[in-house]
Specification:
Order of helices and strands: HEEEHEHE
Bound molecules: guanosine-5'-monophosphate, zinc ion
Distance between the termini: 31 Å
Structural class: alpha+beta
Largest sheet: 5 strands, antiparallel
Radius of gyration: 13 Å
CATH topology: HIT family, subunit A
Number of strands: 5
Number of domains: 1
Mean pLDDT: 96
């Protein structure tokens, strides 16, 4: 299934790449909510956490495994936050599983 983030991963739509390996692509959010705001995605299309299954969970694990390395590249030695939005109430606007990596400041504790 093609989507905005699939097009970014393929390079059909430009992005500010931060990290890439066989399974994972990470790029700067176009509308940052913090000094560091990076989106980390599996290269394979998974719509959201709701669509994780036995066949694709390894791709999700690769994304999670890459997070500390990406945080280090971004200079987030003092900590960071990882968020994934799911569905309408979760505020998900792009239907390709992505983890927001936020940091570079002391983040407010705010759930909505
Ligand atoms: P969501 O709301 O689905 O959790 O997050 C989608 C994120 O994708 C938003 O933070 C939004 O700013 C970002 N975004 C949307 N379109 C683009 C784009 O074309 N390029 C980049 N780099 N980020 C995008
Ligand atoms: Zn996709």
């Amino acid at each position: 299934m093609e989507c905005l983030f699939c097009s970014i991963i393929k390079g059909d739509i430009p992005s500010a790449k931060v990290f890439e390996n066989e399974h994972v692509y990470a790029f700067k959010d176009i509308n940052p909510n913090a000094p560091v705001h990076v989106l980390i995605v599996p290269k394979t299309h998974i719509s959201s956490i709701d669509d994780i299954d036995a066949g694709n969970v390894c791709a999700v694990a690769e994304v999670l495994k890459a997070i500390p390395e990406i945080a280090k590249i971004c200079g987030l030695e003092n900590g960071y936050r990882v968020i994934t939005n799911v569905g309408e109430d979760g505020g998900q606007t792009v239907k390709h599983l992505h983890f927001h990596l936020l940091g570079g400041t002391k983040l407010a504790v705010k759930l909505n």
